[in-house]
Write a structure and sequence with these properties.
Number of helices: 2
Shape: globular
Distance between the termini: 26 Å
Largest sheet: 6 strands, antiparallel
Structural class: alpha+beta
Helix content: 10-25%
Length: 82
């Protein structure tokens, strides 16, 4: 999948969120254990790892990062705000 196609799929799937610029990062195993695994994600990926934290007092707003696996310990990381 090309990068532009990937970003379009992520934008369309998570259309209720603001997505920031993606980066490619090597992520240590110790960090991965603290992330939530979600198997309901964009086509072409078996799962996405999610790190999120609540912002505001209403409980409905979150910031965080999506971690899409590329290879072992390498992820496309997309910051989000919903």
């Amino acid at each position: 999948m090309e990068v532009s196609e990937f970003i379009g799929k992520v934008r369309d799937y998570y259309n209720d969120c603001y997505l920031d610029f993606p980066t490619i990062q090597d992520v240590q195993d110790s960090k991965l254990t603290n992330l939530e695994r979600q198997e309901d994600t964009i086509e072409g990926f078996a799962f996405v790892l999610v790190e999120q934290w609540q912002i505001g007092l209403d409980g409905d707003s979150y910031n965080g990062n999506f971690y899409f696996p590329v290879s072992e310990n390498t992820y496309i990381v997309i910051p989000f705000s919903c």
